[in-house]
């Protein structure tokens, strides 16, 4: 029982990590279009394009998760990425380890 719960928790943590942050996404682009564009460099597992509840438009940035580090390198090797006439700004995300809390009873 404890092992199954640990596996679920690890799965939730791994879903939080994204490989690339993309800024300057054009207003007219959907997450499907962004995912299709970046699929030419490798397998895109997930594209998260957050929306503003007040305006109903997306916030012009997104996060991408790729299947392998090789796919990420393929994306980063290209100098400029243009989607619907707009130049995208990319930044590779670094995966930070959480600090372990010290046991206060020690």
Automatic annotation (TrEMBL):
The keyword Kinase does not apply. Gene3D superfamilies: 3.30.70.330. Residues 18-106 form the RRM domain. Residues 87-106 are annotated as: Disordered. Keywords: RNA-binding. Residues 94-106 have a biased composition (Basic residues). Pfam families: RRM_1. Signal peptide: none annotated. GO terms for molecular function: RNA binding. PROSITE patterns: RRM. InterPro entries: Nucleotide-bd_a/b_plait_sf, RBD_domain_sf, RRM_dom, SLIRP_RRM. This is SLIRP protein. It comes from Serilophus lunatus (silver-breasted broadbill).
């Amino acid at each position: 029982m404890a092992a199954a719960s640990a596996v679920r928790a690890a799965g939730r943590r791994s879903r939080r990590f994204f490989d690339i942050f993309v800024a300057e996404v054009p207003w007219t682009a959907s997450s499907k279009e962004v995912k299709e564009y970046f699929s030419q460099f490798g397998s895109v597992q997930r594209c998260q394009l957050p929306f503003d509840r007040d305006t109903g438009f997306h916030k012009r940035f997104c996060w991408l998760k790729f299947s392998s580090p090789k796919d990420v390198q393929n994306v980063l090797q290209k100098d400029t990425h243009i989607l619907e006439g707009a130049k995208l700004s990319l930044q590779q995300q670094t995966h930070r380890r959480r600090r372990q809390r010290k046991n206060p009873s020690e």
